[in-house]
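Subject: for your reference before the review

Hello V.,

The reviewers asked for a structural picture of the protein, and I figured it would be easier to keep everything in one thread rather than splitting it across files. Below is the amino acid sequence we used in the manuscript, unchanged from the supplementary table.
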Amino acid sequence: MGHAALCLFVLLLGVGCSQQVQTIPAIQHAAIGLSDSKRAAVDATMNQLVTDGKIAGSVVLIAQHGEVVHFEAYGQRDTEPAAPMQTDTIFRIWSMTKPVATAAALILVDEGKLKLDDPVAAYIPELKDIQVQVGDERVTPHRPMTVADLMRHTAGFSYGFLGHPVDPLYVAADPLGAENLEGMAERLPRLVLANHPGERWQYSLSIEVLGLVIERVSGQGLDVFLQERVFDPLGMPDTGFHCPTEKHGRLAAVYSPAGADADTDTGTTARRHRDKERFTKPTRFFSGGAGLVSTARDYAHFLMMVRGGGAWQGRRILEPQTAALMITDQLPPEAFPIGIGKPRPGVGFGFGFSVRRDPDQANPHDPVGRYGWNGAASTHAWVSPADDVMVITLEQRLPYSNETADLLKPILHGQER
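And here is what came back from the structure prediction:
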């Protein structure tokens, strides 16, 4: 990124933020190590993904030592009509919502209003009699589900689509189809746990349940709590539970790669989904697990807060020891490693983020200590403390693919070629 582009970037980042909140500082990339060859390799990789019809477009933001070193848009945010991708494009970030909601709950922990080892039933009595499916029987959990279990996906819940025997119950109860989180609470007693709390990492609706805990403890809707305690202090004006009408022109459309099986229109290289226009209207169901839209800039502000030990630009969101819980493995030994569909060797889970605990020969460019999480429409965010590199790649590609992250990690964390 040349000096002029960096100056423009600084101006763009200031748009929409309060006067009190400064944005991420930008400097010339050569000063801290993202060489011209690495920049060129990132550009070539992203442009090739567009050319090959893997994605319609993308935004990539890279920072090192707290300084933005690369912020570029590639391809198109919409092909009908044609509209170029821009760095302020808004994306459905789906499960990248989870770390944000977890941080919100940790604010209440810092304030002494919530404890990590509190039983969830203390706040959601609808769960006091929930049972665990063991073979053909339903039994009482070995111990109560705790708030910490919700944050690290060891509560025992399922999502209803991951192939566990209890999934039909989740489909029938449809807890995520309720009008709001209180409506979800009414459906929770119909569920059965897939595992005893604490015994296995199981991706699930636990962060939606955590959102209900936040609402009941704070006395505010999750949308209001996040706005007042996270988005406003961090200068995240384009993050929320829907994209307002006046910003619809900035919302990226959702696509599938050419040749992928999906319910799509035809006639474009990357094929547009017909049924993927969620988040364009207000909702009353504030999903802490998958409900937010955001921009690369906004999400970078959030990651910078976590990287900064709970504070950024003089605004403290979390205490340092609390922020550290998000980025260090919190799993009991029997629940390690994590995995959705297949195990991820060497990867544990903190409160909100996956964490690379051990090196993996199959993933040599995934540094130990790396933390982050992804979203269903192939959005990715990770931070590598080893080289102090932060990466956000946003695209709207279904079904989910890790291809972009897999291609960029060797460039950014490998040796110079």
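For the response letter, the relevant points are probably these. The longest strand covers residues 67-79. The first helix runs from residue 3 to 14.

Happy to draft the paragraph if you're swamped.

O.
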